[in-house]
Design goal:
53% strand, 5-stranded mixed β-sheet, 5 helices, mainly beta, 22-stranded antiparallel barrel, 766 residues, 5% helix, 42 strands
Amino acid sequence: MTRSTRPMRHRTPIALALIGLCASSLPTAFAQQAAQPAASSPSAAPAPAPGTSVPATLREVQVQGAQDKTGFGANPSSLNRLPADLRDAPQSVTVINQAVMQSQGATSLASALRNVPGLTIGGAEGGQIGTNINLNGFSARTDIYLDGARDRAQYYRDTFALESVEVLMGPSSMLFGRGSTGGVINQVTKKPSLTPAGEISVSASTTGLVRSTIDINRPLSDTSAFRIAAMGQQGDASTREQTKLKDFGLDASLKFGINTPTQVTLSALVQHNRDQPDYGVPPLNGHPAKVDRDTAYGFSDDRTISDIQAFSAVVQHKLTPDTSIRNQTQYNDVTTDARETAPQSIGTLSAKGAFTPFSTGTTAVPAAAFSSLPLSSLWVRQQSHDRTIHDKSLFNLTELNTKFTTGSIKHTLLAGLELGHDTYDNQAYYRNGTCAGVALNPAGGTSGYATCSPLLAPYQGNTPSTAPSLPGNLATASATTVAGYVNDTIELSPQWKLVAGVRQDHYRASIYNSIPTATTLASESQTVDFTSVRAGAIWQPTPEQSYYVSYSTSFNPSLEQLVATTGSTQPLPPQKNKAYEVGGKWDLNDGNLSLTAAAFQITQTNARSQNSDGTYSATGTIRVNGARAGVAGRVTDKLQLFGAYTHLDATIIDGIAPGTLGKVPANTPKDAASLWATYAITPEWEIGGGTTYSARRFANNTDLVQVGGYARLDAMVAYHQPKYDIRLNLFNLANRHYYDALIPSDGGRAVPGSGRAATLSLTYRL
């Protein structure tokens, strides 16, 4: 039985009180500055110099007013590495703006990214926790960016400080460096402006979650402004057991020199999370074990505590009307203290209390081996996954943008230099315990098997006293990046453009382990020098149409994530990725509605394949042939759409582990789609709804554990007034039992999605 009817539980987090204090004091503090008039509109552009040609057709530039903030249409790109008009990018780009996230009640990065078919969510796993993502069949855990700077640390990301989320599809190492096999996710934070604005939002969910946010923007002068966003939430994240969280965050930014040649933006993000991890349910007979949706196998004292600090300084100077230089320094410091328990294996318990697993935990349970045993007779061995992780990174990026002509050919040139340093410390802990009084771990072992529980009724208390926490391996690592790149967009005519870019990366990483094993070396270092390229052609027969073809590459060093379990004496060569893409982009309804479509192929060689002794070799090949289509914007003044469809034909064409040849990579559905629609019945009343669909997926690369497809229905009704909005979001209307996130380890675990739930929110504009 689901717990969709769980009564509301009252929550009063300290963070909510802090936000309320900010809400009452900030408007007063900034009243004097707010009274100052905003800067006037920029002066008209100067007339062209004598002899300068003017294109016969100019694209209309529309300045969005306040009412357009509710539009689902794509925002201009925030990245200097991409053209502001995404029709000039020979690549699929999906922009999920704040209007879409608010309409859907999306409060986490993972929930916002459900709008991107072909992107799937991974759960907490081994050394990987936080926001884990698969994009186009490949892991994108280290391909998350914050305002264009790498955000590789392991934590759960919120949307309270985000203006939008940009998802670039396909290998992009020429623009971003290592990684990006399936694409890149860029979080765009809210920035100060000269328009005074502010709002407070409070929401309550039937799961027991209470959340409050605040967003205030105030001009300080005619050329400077300040913006602050804050969040506090506490309660149960879903209808499942053991999903309590208590989070708060603050994002503040100052901007100087607005509408002047030199602009400086200083920003800081500080966030504290205390969440309970969800390791899902174990596999049995080729599928997730058929237990109640709320069943969880962690302990009551499991928690993931993260402290996030991110500081950024951006200086942008316009040298001439056609040339500008930009420098960005980003420092991230994230500490995560995790005490987590997972269902490692299903088995039987003898009369003397000896646990016998059906599998070793690294392979799936055979489909027919134990189908005759009643579930009530089965037990689960629970394994600790405890560690304290400290991630730090410092990156500096300098970019020069300039426009010039050579004869009749126009150029838009981007040149950049990136310098970066990452450090990583992971102190592992283990809890060795007993089952029915019998030790689960051999003497001297560090497997961390804490206890065992009946499959249908797992133990729900704190960690048993028979399983004390002891320190295990200490893994440390560091990496240095030096890279230079140049990209030229060549306009041959108003209809034809070429794009060509090249980047050279020098990446050096070293790792150390205090307790080496047969598959974990005491130390290892790697230096990779790699050249990434990008090339494309764009045809724009009219300002409303754009067609393109492109080729791009990327690379993944074996020490990319600053962890290694190769067990070999030499570091493995980097995985190499290449992609071909052809597509089109169309603007309809006077530019208010955008359509996109693309077909692509991504091939990864040197994919790491596991040997029989547990070591790895770089002998695998994975290929994904796919197609995607999307829609975003206003169909009419009252009807808006945001949706997409993706087809992925993914195959392991050279085995990456025994039994994987010809299989479908884990967590890669063949077909996936999402659609969200809203309709304004009157200027005050708005309704909306949509579906998220995924075809079946496999929980591991051997395709022995299958998770069925599903379609989840959501709905929304909102009441709008000039000073406030009231919104009711309904999630999983049909109370569908589906699996949200997949975890390849331990044979392939699956995390059930939340049951039916509702969230009521009030947003008040200051």
